[in-house]
Design goal:
Layout: H1 3-10, H2 14-22, E1 29-30, E2 37-38, H3 41-55, H4 60-66, H5 72-109, E3 116-122, E4 125-131, H6 139-150, E5 156-161, H7 163-166, E6 175-181, H8 182-188, E7 197-199, E8 202-211, H9 219-232, E9 236-250, E10 253-264
Antiparallel strand pairs: 1-2, 3-8, 4-6, 4-7, 5-6, 5-9, 8-10, 9-10
Helix pairs in contact: 3-4
């Protein structure tokens, strides 16, 4: 069969058939009288074999090798390796779905312009601070920030008010950077090389806020969380830590929604 008839029967464009031919996936016979390629039904099986492997992301060169003396053990090794990779991708996509659901949950948890305080258990996590600090970040911190930025949305934008500022200043020193939950760090296989601050999991009083500039927070902004602590008869201590969730516009103003939690005893 000539290339156009053969490609039509296969259900693929003639251009793809020629591409596979050039890359050794098949090798049609060349006719002496006109130098055209001639294909038969056995070539069709090799094409479909290659298309199947290509649908699982096998490279063209690997697919060509599978059609030219690749042993059963070689194919099995590739399949085993690819199964592990697909399982890893499924786990990452599940994490991505959970992050999207968390963001959507925000719209049922918050009401525009309202402040909410609640108890929330923060899981163990790691964070680096690159903005709002008194010192320039060192090279390890910059490298860790680069790793976490690469792994968004499994990592997140982190915020912190250091304890000294939280309980001593009227206008707070707010720091920002990136963080990741220990659970997500393990699933992504990330090595943070000791440059990130480890924050232990703990139950915290958490406040949700909408602010144009999270770097300009004052004691007044966090007053609801202090009042709630007094009402419950608990003592707040430690840094206020949390994360940024969403940015959007209210009444023509760009605002950021974020949560900050403080440990209590």
């Amino acid at each position: 069969m000539k290339v156009h008839e053969f490609s039509a029967r296969l259900g693929i464009p003639a251009s793809k058939l020629r591409y596979y031919d050039r890359n050794g996936i098949i090798s049609g016979k060349r006719l002496e009288e006109n130098n055209y390629r001639e294909y038969d039904k056995k070539d069709a099986l090799d094409i479909y074999n290659a298309l199947m492997f290509r649908s699982f992301d096998m490279t063209v060169s690997q697919a060509a090798k599978s059609n030219s003396g690749c042993r059963l053990g070689d194919v099995n090794a590739w399949l085993s390796c690819h199964i592990m990779e697909v399982e890893r991708q499924i786990a990452l996509e599940q994490m991505r779905l959970e992050r999207l659901q968390q963001m959507r949950q925000y719209f049922t948890d918050i009401r525009e312009g309202q402040t909410r305080v609640e108890k929330f258990r923060l899981q163990k996590n790691y964070e680096v601070w690159t903005f709002g600090t008194d010192e320039e970040p060192d090279q390890k911190t910059v490298q860790t920030a680069r790793i976490l930025a690469k792994h968004l949305p499994f990592s997140y934008v982190a915020l912190k008010i250091p304890e000294k500022s939280l309980f001593g200043d009227v206008r707070y020193q707010v720091q920002s950077g990136l963080g990741i939950l220990e659970e997500n760090r393990r699933k992504c296989g990330i090595d943070l090389e000791g440059a990130a601050f480890e924050i232990a999991g703990a139950e915290r009083l958490t406040i949700w806020l909408e602010k144009e500039d999270p770097f300009c927070l004052t004691r007044e902004d966090l007053e609801p969380i202090f009042r709630e602590a007094d009402r419950q008869g608990v003592e707040l201590f430690g840094d206020a830590v949390g994360r940024m969730y969403l940015g959007y516009t209210i009444d023509g103003k760009r605002v950021h929604c974020f949560a900050l939690g403080i440990c209590f005893r």
